[in-house]
Amino acid sequence: MAVPLQDFWVRKMRSLFVIFDKDADGVVTKNDFLGAVEDELKASMKEIKTGSFEHLLLNVWVEFWGGPDKLTVTFDEMCSRYARLFNEPNLRNLMAEFLKVCFDAVVPEEDQHLTLDGYTLFLRNYGVHPLSVPPSFQAIDTNHDGLITREEFVNAGIEFFTCTADTPAKLFIGPFLG
Ligand SMILES: [Ca+2]
Ligand SMILES: [Ca+2]
């Protein structure tokens, strides 16, 4: 029998799910998920980055959302797929790889870090209002130097998806909706 999922973690996943369930009907379609990357963000990426980003996004859909065949996913289905992160280290590696590509996609080649403006652009893509971004930025900027490094970004993302406790990383993708 499956171990019950930890309540706080489920609430984090809820904050993630609603970003993609824009019409709030309890279902996220594959098109909702893959279409979440807006042209504006794509335009700011190099062509090769766009290709690898879309490829990874598809992998994330297959591993954590609908699976290889389904075109829709419910919240419970998504949760049970993300819960596999607790037992399957290779999935953590995939998630870390995805987060690295996300980071590289929004950070200019010559820079090594994400600014508040860059993170605002990234989260706006997911419908997060610019005024809601600074608390998330501060949560991820763990050494408080006003810049997010790749390592800070990936660590916060992994913590968002794999930590069951209430930590600042709950703000990784914007406001925590509880
Ligand atoms: Ca929906
Ligand atoms: Ca920092």
Strands of the largest sheet, in order across it? 1-2
Q: Which molecules are bound besides the chains?
A: calcium ion
Query: Uncertain segments of ≥5 residues (pLDDT<50)?
Result: none
Mean pLDDT: 88
Number of discrete domains? 1
Q: What's the N-to-C terminus distance?
A: 27 Å
The fold-level CATH name is Recoverin, domain 1
Q: Could you give a short account of the major beta sheet?
A: 2 strands, antiparallel
CATH architectural group: Orthogonal Bundle
Topology as a string of helices (H) and strands (E): HEHHHEHHEHHEH
Briefly summarize what is shown.
By secondary structure, the protein is mainly α.
Give an account of the 3D structure.
The structure is a single chain. Helix 1 (7-20) crosses helix 5 (75-82). This protein is mainly alpha-helical. 25% of the residues are buried. It contains 9 helices and 4 strands. Helices cover 55% and strands 6% of the residues. The protein has a two-stranded antiparallel ribbon with strand order 1-2. It has a two-stranded antiparallel sheet with strand order 3-4. The two termini are 27 Å apart. It has one domain (7-169): EF-hand (Recoverin, domain 1). It has helices at 7-20, 30-34, 39-43, 47-64, 75-82, 89-106, 116-124, 133-140, 150-162; strands at residues 27-29, 72-74, 113-114, 148-149. The mean pLDDT is 88.
